[in-house]
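Q: Sequence in, structure out?
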Amino acid sequence: MLIPNSIRCLTQNHFCCLLLATGIILMTESQAAEKIEFNRDVRPILADNCWSCHGPDAGNRKAKLRLDMRESAIKEVIVPGKASQSPLAQRILSEDDDEIMPPTDHRKKLTEP
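A: Exactly. Output:
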């Protein structure tokens, strides 16, 4: 049995569209599930908002807390993969002026994504 060209062309177009849609969905899912990396995702935020008091300059460092090095940050205030258990996240989200980080008089305010 011969399939008319118009039907064959339509079937090929449907297959191409389905293949393209599947590729887009898979690509989007893989990007959404991308693992958070300290140096790429976390470190720049800490550098902009925390390092003036908790960075590499020992003379300006407060509370002996160093957030510019992953090892120090996860030892002290970050629980990887468990933000709700991380003292840093609790301080950032606090509504208590004595607890919140960065402090209310700090020149920058963190925003939610």
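The chain has a mean pLDDT of 77.
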